[in-house]
Amino acid sequence: MNAHSVHAQITDRLRNVGLRPTRQRVDLASLMFVGEDHHMTAETLHRDASSAGVSVSLATVYNTLHQFTQVGLLREIVVDSGRSYFDTNTSEHHHFYFEDKGVLEDISSADVVLAELPDAPAGSKISRVDVIVRVTEA
Questions:
Q1: Distance of alpha carbon 50 from its chain centroid, rounded?
Q2: Do 46 and 98 fall within a single domain?
Q3: Are strands 93-98 and 132-135 parallel, antiparallel or unpaired?
Q4: 34 and 56 together in one domain
Q5: Model pLDDT for residues 61-73, shown as the tens digit of each residue
Q6: Over 70: is that where the pLDDT of 2 sits?
Q7: Given this model, what pLDDT does residue 137 score?
């Protein structure tokens, strides 16, 4: 797939979710959505953007990640109070979190069986269940 067709697909994808396809959004989306699904932090995406010659501030990266999450292009995975990952795979699934490496790995939703969930509090509903299995090297 050539760069022009990737650019056109990303532009269409952004417009389809109501986002204006600015140069910075298209450049960042090109890094996120081309190839396999993956997990990234704002810092790793900023580093990848710099390596690819994309001039963008860390604040813009954060804003873009949150905008993409709000419209359903990404899924935010909070592993602790100061660390969030953004997942390009928005399907229902869970994660291993390798604490020693700071890496997430997908777990199929079929591989996690929850016997029972509590009822949601009055006036609310359960929108999603995220399971993070924390692992360390043995």
A1: 19
A2: no
A3: parallel
A4: yes
A5: 999 999 999 999 9
A6: no
A7: 87
Instruction: Categorise residue 72: left if φ over 0, alpha if ψ from -120 to 50, beta otherwise.
Output: left
Q: Which residues contact 13 (CB under 8 A, 6 or more apart)?
A: 29, 33, 73
- Amino acid found at 60: T
Same domain, 68 and 49: yes
CATH number of the structural domain spanning residue 62: 1.10.10.10
Predicted pLDDT of residue 81: 83
DSSP for 21-45 reads --HHHHHHHHHHHSSS--EE-HHHH
Same domain, 43 and 18: yes
Query: Token digits for 135?
Result: 């692992």
Residues of the chain with pLDDT > 70, as a percent, come to 97
Residue range(s) defining the domain that contains residue 56? 3-84
Which residue in the block uniquely carries the two structure tokens 């952004």? 14
Nearest one of 39, 131, 133 to 86, comparing CA atoms: 39
- Asked if residue 80 and residue 95 are part of one domain, the reply reads no
The residue from 65, 84, 103 where one domain ends is: 84
pLDDT tens across 37-92, in order? 899 999 999 999 999 999 999 999 999 999 999 999 999 999 988 889 999 999 99
